[in-house]
Amino acid sequence: MAQKSRLGVFALRPGISVWVLPLIAALALAAALARAASPARAEVHISNFTFEPRTLTVPVGATVTWVNRDDELHTVTSGAFTSPALDTDESFSFHFDAPGTYVYRCAIHPQMTGTIVVQ
Q1: What CATH superfamily classification does 41-118 receive?
Q2: Tell me: the pLDDT tens digits for 36-73?
Q3: Where are the domains of the chain?
């Protein structure tokens, strides 16, 4: 039978409420660590023959996904990565493991350029 402890927490038996607060704190810490450990994700849209945003800053370990919203084929090409030709609504992702500045372009339309800054 439940009874009210001195801390105002209902417990199944006396003394069990002592474990409730540390348990809640441990679960909250585990959830925060899981969020911090989950990789960052970002998206670049290809639309009207431009990369949007043109410059994107992400943390090391982030994955960036480019999505083609144009009716034309486009690529995402850099010294570190190269996508296949992307048709409308197709996407390409790259995982950035090292800090640096990555300049990329569309190989089909070289006037289209963008930059990923990894910090």
Answers
A1: Cupredoxins -  blue copper proteins (2.60.40.420)
A2: 555 689 999 999 999 999 999 999 999 999 999 999 99
A3: 3-37, 41-118
Spatial CB neighbours of 116, under 8 Å, sequence gap ≥ 6: 55, 56, 57, 58, 64, 96, 101, 102, 104
Check if the beta carbon of residue 60 is closer than 8 Å to that of residue 68.
no
The Cα 52–Cα 64 span in angstroms is 12
Q: What 3-state class would DSSP assign to 113?
A: strand
- Residue position matching structure tokens 């930059």: 115
Both structure tokens of 20: 């409730």
């960036």: which residue's tokens? Answer: 64
